[in-house]
Design a protein that fits this description.
nine-stranded mixed sheet; 10 helices; alpha/beta; elongated
Length: about 350
């Protein structure tokens, strides 16, 4: 199962909104075939594992897979049917698939045809692997990661008292490279008006080279000029605004939404999910980040703390009290702390 998880991770950033899945076929203590889900719409892990194996050996082998095999026709035929067709008699599964078209039906199909099924092997690791997929189904919103850098004395940005020539950079180059890798792993990246105006960010993966996420801009009054990098047409971009806009820009969609509605953020996230964007890394300013903290609409926060002190500036958002530290490490001279929300809405 550990090998299944290792294989599944190779699909990170490429298979969403599908889950990441790896499969291994074992016979007499040796792996005789393996595969993983490479790309959304392409063959599933079980199919690739079976196709990599001598068919004559399948009936005596054991199939391991980190997620319950599908039992419905989607973009590909049901994997449960293929397992039965090939005569595999034993299947070990990491965790159930919460998708309503599967949700235990794959296991029921296998058992109904005499397949010996073992469930919940490395269950917690398998659930963690597909946290984005599972969150989108169970919470009806994308998986939310809050990412920001702060100074050693707790400031996230400069204020009006700083000289205009003062560098806004807080984290080291190594931390920026890691951030760009993270961007390649998520479906979307979000900023607010002030960050777009002050930093003019590209929000791409130029320091890493992976897939560029869809850019999301929250710009109530459309203050960000169309000359800004966020409108450069190189990436899909969604702009949430309260101002009627008829302008057409390549690869850019303007969506009207009521920023004053009590459940504005929740509504916005539902729309994002409807656009098949299963996860968002939020790199906005203090106000944007704080709004997600306050609404309890976040799953992880990834915070770089530098050795630099400013003595003044815009204070970092207030971290949720019930956030749980899940890791802490040094990235060059920065300290990266990752928190998990144990009570996320």
């Amino acid at each position: 199962m550990q090998r299944c998880i290792q294989l599944a991770k190779l699909g990170l950033g490429n298979v969403a909104p599908n889950p990441m899945v790896g499969a291994v076929i074992e016979l007499n203590g040796k792996i005789i075939g393996e595969g993983y889900h490479h790309q959304f719409g392409a063959a599933h892990a079980e199919v690739n594992a079976i196709n990599s194996t001598d068919e004559a050996l399948l009936k005596d082998g054991t199939l391991y897979v980190n997620l319950e095999p599908c039992s419905h026709f989607g973009k590909t035929p049901p994997c449960a049917d293929l397992i039965i067709e090939k005569g595999i008699k034993r299947v070990v599964i990491g965790c159930l698939d919460p998708f309503k078209e599967v949700a235990g039906r794959g296991i029921a199909t296998l058992k109904a045809h005499g397949v010996d099924v073992i469930l919940d092997v490395c269950k917690e690791q398998c659930l963690e692997l597909n946290k984005r997929f599972i969150t989108s189904l169970e919470k009806k919103r994308p998986y939310i990661i809050l990412k920001y850098a702060q100074t050693a004395d707790g400031y996230i940005g400069l204020d009006a008292t700083h000289d205009i020539s003062t560098s806004r950079q807080i984290s080291r180059r190594e931390s920026q490279q890691l951030t760009h890798r993270w961007r390649s792993e998520e479906s979307a990246i979000l900023v607010g008006t002030n960050t777009a105006l002050l930093d003019n960010p590209k929000l791409n993966t130029r320091f890493f080279g992976g897939n560029n996420p869809t850019r999301i801009l929250l710009d109530k009054d459309l203050k960000v000029p169309f000359s800004n990098n966020i409108y450069d047409t190189t990436q899909n971009t969604i702009v949430f605004t309260q101002k009627n806009k008829s302008t057409r820009i390549l690869n850019c969609t303007f969506l009207e939404i009521d920023f004053n509605a009590p459940a504005f953020l929740k509504e916005m996230l539902e729309i994002v999910l409807e656009n098949n964007l299963q996860s968002i890394i939020i790199e906005g300013g203090a106000a944007t980040l704080q709004s997600f903290y306050d609404a309890n609409l976040w799953d992880e926060s990834r915070i770089f703390t530098s050795t630099t002190s400013w003595g003044k500036g815009i204070k970092s958002p207030l971290q949720a009290k019930d956030a749980k530290i899940i890791s802490e490490e040094k990235i060059a001279t920065d300290t990266l702390t990752i928190y998990k929300n144990t009570t996320a809405s």
